[in-house]
Amino acid sequence: MALRIATWNVNSINSRLDRITGWLRSAAPDVVCLQELKCTEEAFPAERLRELGYEAAVAADGRWNGVAVLSRLGVQDVATRLPGQPPYEGVVEPRAVAATCGPLRVWSLYVPNGRELGHPHYAYKLEWLRALRAAVAQDAVGERPFAVLGDFNIAPKDEDVWDIARFEGATHVSEPERAELAELLKTGLTEAYPRALKYDIPFTFWDYRMLGFPKNKGMRIDHVYGNAPFTAAVSDAYVDRDARRPGKKDQPASLAPSDHAPVVVDLDL
């Protein structure tokens, strides 16, 4: 059974809906984990996506968060928050949603940014990662193919950012964040690392400013981590850079790119 799954921080699903639906038609993934929806659950474009054959499990509140799992295999056993997920400023944010899609169990994750070292949001990020580790531990050692996909807001190694000197004293590359990610992998998860296409390091994010994408000033912060049955089935993995390309200057706003590109993984189960 050949399956294609993907993760993509879309940076506002309704603002980029034509770009997203066009990509779904061309890439034809069976399961897609989306982050940063920036809409309420009521405003989520479920009907447009249903027309393309996708059911959706959604957790969203209209702010800068929001996550979803789209599936052409159905969605069952939906969970819309991590067990034990910590709040931030009294709010349990919509940063995680899980669903069983055919033979797969997946989590779509939008890990907190952290903002800056010493900020309360940074402490929240570390606490959130610890909750994630506890939440996935059982599935990670199970016999069913299982993966956590999303925007982790962590570059695991120095080479995963375009210039590590520019990130001195910043989030995304700090040792506590990387240590929490390493602890997550100890539950039994392994990365489906994307193969290099145009560049040696398959970056997944490029800032809109300072010609970040044309100059490849990127970061590798979107990841796919699977358990042993999942990673044993991986036949290919890559970053779809074409989905990040700006396109024509006179194109409609709904065709503008996200600042992230999809990470695509092909499976042969």
From TrEMBL:
It is an enzyme of class 3 (hydrolase). Residues 6-260 form the Endonuclease/exonuclease/phosphatase domain. One of its GO terms (molecular function) is double-stranded DNA 3'-5' DNA exonuclease activity. It holds the Pfam family Exo_endo_phos. Keywords: Hydrolase, Magnesium, Metal-binding. PROSITE patterns: AP_NUCLEASE_F1_1, AP_NUCLEASE_F1_4. The keyword Transferase does not apply. Its cofactor is Mg(2+). Its EC number is 3.1.11.2. Belongs to the DNA repair enzymes AP/ExoA family. PANTHER family: EXODEOXYRIBONUCLEASE III. This is Exodeoxyribonuclease III. It comes from Streptomyces polyrhachis.
